[in-house]
Amino acid sequence: MLRGFYTAASGMLTQQRRTEMLTNNMSNANTTGFKADQTSIRSFPEMLLSNIDSKTIPTENKLSMSKFSQVGSLSTGVYVQETNPLFTQGTLEETQLNTDLALVDENLPINEGTGRQGAVLFTVQDGDGGLRYTRNGSFTLDGQGYLTTPNGYYVLDENNERIQLDSDQFTVTENGVILEGNVQKARLGIGFSDNPSAQLMKDGEGLYKVVNDDELPSAYAGAEVSFSTKQGFLEGSNVDQSRTMTEMMSSYRSFEASQKVLQAYDKSLDKAVNEVGKL
């Protein structure tokens, strides 16, 4: 009976974590460049139960032999194996601000192992000088003319150098080149990940970092990688609010079902201890 407690409790904990993830997605439905998280739920290894009995052979010494009969398999519960962001294109919203930039996915190679396409991201530099990546192109110019993210991180060019401009009256071409008048000032640093679910992890405030703090290769170097940059636009969140709400209700019902099972086990154990134990 105690196995049933653990199985039901694991189901409740799993659905609680899934609900928290879905709630976070819903709360960021209007966050620029946000990528919705998704969970992968797996079952613990099943146990094969057998009934052990004994049979006495009518010999002079009354030989006893063990007898096994198979009962069946028993599930030991479920768990959240991993949580990964879904790197699909969000909707584009026009702002008409020169400092607002958006990446448009065109032809990104499909990863043979996962069956999902890769991702392109802006390259930025955090406060400690480390490389981070983002899809939030809501940039501004600081007091020294450097192009920065909303949290003050520097936007980098294709050589991982900071981008300094004279004013916000600049033009960004579709291939990422920044022009002031007819003079090329820099080219946006765009990284490409062929397996973002495994290579990238969220680092807060719309930023991602590469596992083991490695560096993504340049998206310009990929022969099969095709994307464009749109000035005066921002990429919205890719959260599907209707689907997320439906999944939240489903997760809640699953949590409630596991809770009912746990209560039933508790009543059965209470009866076994307080009533059957009196006999």
UniProtKB/TrEMBL annotation:
Give the classification, highest ranks. Answer: Bacteria, Bacillati, Bacillota, Bacilli, Bacillales
Indicate what this protein is called per its UniProt record.
Flagellar biosynthesis protein FlgC
Domain Flagellar basal-body/hook protein C-terminal: residue ranges: 230-274
GO CC, sorted alphabetically, is: bacterial-type flagellum basal body
Cross-referenced PROSITE patterns:
FLAGELLA_BB_ROD
Flagellar hook protein FlgE/F/G-like D1 domain mapped to chain residues:
118-178
One GO BP annotation is:
bacterial-type flagellum-dependent swarming motility
Alphabetically list the UniProt keywords: Bacterial flagellum, Cell projection, Cilium, Flagellum
